Please model this.
Amino acid sequence: MLGAVRAALVTACFVCMARPVAADDKVSFAMDLMPTLKARCAVCHMTGGEPGGMALTPDTAWSDLVGRDAMGLPSMKRVNPGEPQSSYLMHKLWGSHRTVGGNGSRMPLHQPPLTAALIADFEIWVLAGAPNN
Ligand code: HEC
Model:
C-alpha cells in the first residue's frame, strides 16, 4: 500500500516537472522569475553599462527585456511577448542563440545552465505575453 502511494507520488512529481509548456499556466515575473534574475544574472547585468546592455535588477529588468532590441542580434527582441522562438532571451537560456544568428555565450555566463523547469517558467511567461506581474 505504502509502496503504491510512493509510486503514485513519484509519478505525479515526474509529471509536474515534465509538464508541457502551456500558455494558460501562470508565472509571475516578480515572484517566480525575479529571484532567479537576482541570484543568477544581476551580478553581471547590474547597471546596464555592462556587456549585454541590460540591468536585470528589480527596478529595470522588465523594461530592459520586454520589447527591446537585442544588442547581440538587433533583428530580434530580447523578449517578444507571446513569441518565445523570436525572443533572444530564450535562445540565450536554451543555448540556441548562435543557431538564430546571435553571438556570445549561453546564459548565465560561467555558470551551469538554469534547470529545465526554470527555463520553462521563462517560456511560459513569454507565451503569456510577458506581463509585468
Ligand atoms: C558572469 C557574467 C554574466 C552572468 C552571470 C550572466 N550574464 Fe548575460 N551576458 C554577459 C555578457 C558578458 C554578455 C554579452 C556577451 C554575450 O551575449 O554572450 C551577456 C549577454 C546577455 C544577453 C544578450 C543581451 C543582448 O541584448 O544581446 C542576455 C539576454 C543575457 N545576457 C541574459 C542573462 C540572464 C537571463 C542571466 C541569468 C540567468 C545572465 N545573462 C547571466 C554576462 C553574464
About this structure: The chain has five helices and no strands. The first helix runs from residue 2 to 17. Residues 23-127 form one domain.
